[in-house]
Each structure stands twice: as C-alpha cells, then as structure tokens.
Automatic annotation (TrEMBL):
It comes from the Eukaryota. It holds the Pfam family GH16_XgeA. Residues 41-338 form the GH16 domain. PANTHER family: GLYCOSIDASE C21B10.07-RELATED, GLYCOSYL HYDROLASE-RELATED. Residues 1-24 form the signal peptide. GO terms for molecular function: hydrolase activity, hydrolyzing O-glycosyl compounds. Keywords: Signal. This is GH16 domain-containing protein.
Length: 408
C-alpha cells in the first residue's frame, strides 16, 4: 500500500493493526491512525542515517477504558444518500407489539408509494402513507427497516433533520437481536404523540439493572411508584429500564424546529450510553468523522456494566427505524395524551400524518480499535526492530529506502 511518494523519498508504509490487519480497511481509517503522533526511540532513529523522522499532528479522539487502555473509534460503515436503502432490509411482518394499526410495506411498495425515497439533495426519507383516507379500523401503510449488517458493540451516530411525531404516531430508532429479549434491545430515540422529551430504554432478560449511580443527565421515571431500573422485560409491566432526556427539544416539534440534530449511541463492554445534540450543538469531532465521546460531556442515559453484564445481555443487533401507529404505547396512552378523539379516528385522515416522517442525513457506525499491544518496525533492508508501543502514540517513520511495517 503506497501512502505517499516523494521524488527523493519514496517509501511505502504498511500498517497492520493487531488483531485486525489494517490493510483490510478503507483508506479513511488509515488517515485516522496515521494522524496520531509518532514516537520512535532515539536508538532507532539514530542508527541508519538515512532515516528521517517526522511527528504528525496528534489525532483527537483517543479514549480510555477504565483500566487505562487507549482506543480510537474508527469508521466502519456509513449509511447515507442514494445507496442508503441497499444496506437495509424492509420488515414486512406484523408489528410485534400489540394493538398496532399500521402495516409495514415491502421495498417495492415503499418506493412505489413514496414511503421511502432519497431526495435530490441526498436526504433519506421514510414516512407513513399521507394520501389515503381510511375506513375506521383500517390500517395505514408504514415502513420499518433494519440494517442487513449485524453489530455487537459500536458507536452509532445518526444525523437527522426530522423524526416522526404527532398524535397516534410512535416512531423508534433502535437496535435489537433476532433472539429477543435474550440478545437485548436498545431504544435510542423513541416517543409518542407530541412528547417533547426523548425516551431511552433497554430491554433484556432477567439480571440486568440500570445503575442509578452512573453519571447521566436524564431522569429515571417511576412506574407504579418504582424507579424503572430493572431492564428485565417482565419487570415494570415490560417497560424496560428507561431514562427520559431533560431537553424539551430531544423529541417532537421542538427537535424538528431546531433542524434536528445528532443521536449517538456508544456500546462497548463498559457501558451503553446515548447522547443527543440538536443541530447547533453537534460536536466538531462528530462532523469531522473522528468522534470522541469522552469529550461530549455526560450522556443523557448510561447503562453501566456494574449491575448488568453487558456482553451477556446484548449481542448481534441490527439497527432499526420504524413508525408504528397506535399500538401498545401510542394506542394505550391515546386517551390520556390530550390528542383529539380516538386513535382509530385519528388514523382515518391522511392529513394527520404529515409529521410522520424520518428525514435522515446519515447513519455512521464506528468500531472500537484498541491501541495497546506492541509496535514492530520492519525495514525492507532486513533491519528489524521491535519496541513496546507507547500507545496511543503511533509512529510513522519516513525513510528514503526502507519499507516499514508497523503493527500495533
Ligand atoms: C410487495 O407487496 C405488494 C402489496 O402487498 C405485493 O403485491 C407484491 O407482490 C410484494 N412484492 C414483493 C417483491 O414481495
Ligand atoms: C405527503 O408526503 C409527500 C412525500 O413526503 C409530500 O411530498 C406531500 O406533500 C405530502 N402530502 C400530501 C398531501 O401528499
Ligand atoms: C449508590 O451510591 C450510594 C452512595 O454511595 C450507595 O449508598 C448506594 O448503595 C448506591 N446504589 C447502588 C445501586 O449501587
Ligand atoms: C508484547 O510484548 C511483550 C513482551 O515482549 C509480550 O509479553 C506480549 O505478549 C506482547 N503482546 C502482544 C499483544 O503481542
């Protein structure tokens, strides 16, 4: 892999990252790694006179595990623009929650009826049918999609202009395993009617508790006088462990009025945390593609590993967008929501669904790359040196004649 060529200083730098060889990864990731600072021991730099040594800008975004091991979040997948729907499956079965009055359409129907499309300026849109007048009790067409790819851990960053809201409307941006609830569920953005506060929720099998002593900005609601900290799907009448965001602009009309923003979900062995930023407050490192959660301040919600064995309760998730109408949440709460009439009546009129719309700029997935291990520098001339990594400090050596293999 030739990274650079200079008339007098032609060199090739082959980077291999342990445990995964870096040359298997796209170019942008190499930039991420190379933009880290270099440190080469003096004895090595001084030995062959032809070797020059240059320090690059330190890459922002080195994070640390509680045990001190450094790591970066490196780009893995991007879902955006014209190809967005290629990497998703359309879910065409009945919504698995109760009392639902929406039908999920297949890919062909979704495109034909304009329930899923990409605009000329690359906005990804998903919506419910907003043209059909229905009889009472008839279902309205809607869309649910999930990534074809399956993830166990990752940093998921959704940039969106609009999330669905309004009476009878119950959207979610979430992830879950095929084996529910054994593989867990993470609800990142969810709400009903004209809620203004996003609700973040985890559902698991027995034995996963939300540690109230974790640091986060949201509030834990009570269900029947009990704080909903038990994530077991059979506790708290199945509500899971949930946290309500403090910001009024985290869901619904105010979120949209702010131009939407970014929802970020970090899932690793330490915790599963969710942040939301409205558009004016999106951290620069997110925009730059070098996300650094450790600089984002407290998350809205954080499920710690202290009282929940995360690898045991969460695995093999697809990432999902849906819009449910009525159903176990929006239907059951309709009467007390302040919305007019009944959920059935609401459903009949297409003009009630103008706000049942996802408008998405991108979903980017980053993977955690540990920066620990040993650095090995191999030269093409046969010289060989090995040194212990001063991770996260990564070295780049420029030499006139040598090829270096640096493994971290
Ligand atoms: C999609 O759904 C429509 C309407 O139910 C049906 O007619 C069509 O055969 C389906 N297409 C595929 C490819 O399943
Ligand atoms: C329905 O949705 C489409 C697509 O988002 C939009 O262009 C249209 O203005 C909406 N309203 C009606 C009545 O079609
Ligand atoms: C949270 O911290 C308080 C004060 O240190 C402690 O008394 C309590 O037991 C902790 N709760 C949990 C669930 O660990
Ligand atoms: C790094 O080097 C040390 C000492 O040579 C060795 O014990 C250790 O197993 C190496 N670690 C890896 C990940 O290769």
């Amino acid at each position: 892999m030739l990274l650079n060529a200079h008339p007098t200083c032609l060199f090739a730098l082959i980077l291999a990252i342990w445990p995964q060889p870096l040359h298997a990864l796209p170019g942008s990731e190499i930039w991420n790694v190379l933009a880290s600072k270099i440190s080469i021991p003096d004895w090595f730099v001084q030995s062959p006179p032809s070797i020059q040594h240059r320090e690059l800008e330190k890459r922002d975004g080195t994070n640390y595990n509680p045990d001190g091991t450094p790591f970066l979040w490196l780009p893995q997948d991007e879902y955006s623009g014209k190809n967005f729907f290629d990497d998703f499956d359309f879910f065409i079965w009945d919504d698995p929650t109760q009392y639902v009055q929406s039908d999920y359409v297949n890919r062909t129907t979704a495109f034909e009826k304009n329930l899923a499309y990409v605009t000329d300026d690359n906005k990804v849109v998903m919506r419910t049918d907003n043209t059909s007048t229905l009889e009472r009790g008839q279902h309205r067409d809607s869309v649910r999609i999930n990534t074809k790819k399956i993830y166990t851990t990752g940093l998921f960053i959704l940039d969106l202009d609009k999330a669905p809201y309004g009476c009878a409307i119950w959207p979610a941006f979430w992830s879950t395993g095929f084996n529910w609830p054994a593989e867990g569920e993470i609800d990142i953005l969810e709400g009903v009617h004209d809620n203004e506060h996003n609700q973040i929720t985890w559902h698991t099998t027995q034995g996963c508790i939300y540690d109230e002593n974790a640091t986060f900005t949201g509030t834990i609601p009570q269900h029947d006088g009990v704080p909903s900290t038990d994530c077991w799907n059979q506790a708290n009448q199945g509500t899971g462990c949930d946290v309500i965001e403090w910001s009024r602009a985290s869901y619904g009309p105010f979120f949209e009025a702010q131009g939407g923003g970014v929802l970020a979900m970090k899932w690793d062995e330490n915790d599963i945390s969710v942040w939301s930023f409205f558009r004016a407050a999106i951290p620069k490192d997110i925009t730059a593609g070098t996300p650094n959660p450790s600089e984002w301040g407290l998350p809205s919600a954080r499920l710690m590993n202290t009282m929940c064995d995360l690898p045991k309760h969460f695995a093999r998730h697809t990432v999902i967008f849906d819009i449910t109408l009525c159903g176990a949440w929006a239907g059951a709460s309709y009467a007390t929501s302040g919305c007019p009439g009944t959920c059935d009546e609401r459903l009949m009129h297409p003009e009630n669904f103008e706000t049942a719309i996802w408008q998405i700029n991108s979903l980017k997935v980053y993977r955690k790359q540990l920066l620990s291990g040993n650095v090995t520098v191999v030269s093409g001339s046969g010289a060989y040196a090995s040194m212990k990594a001063h991770a996260p400090v990564i070295s780049l050596v420029i030499a006139s004649t040598l090829t270096f293999v640096i493994s971290i």
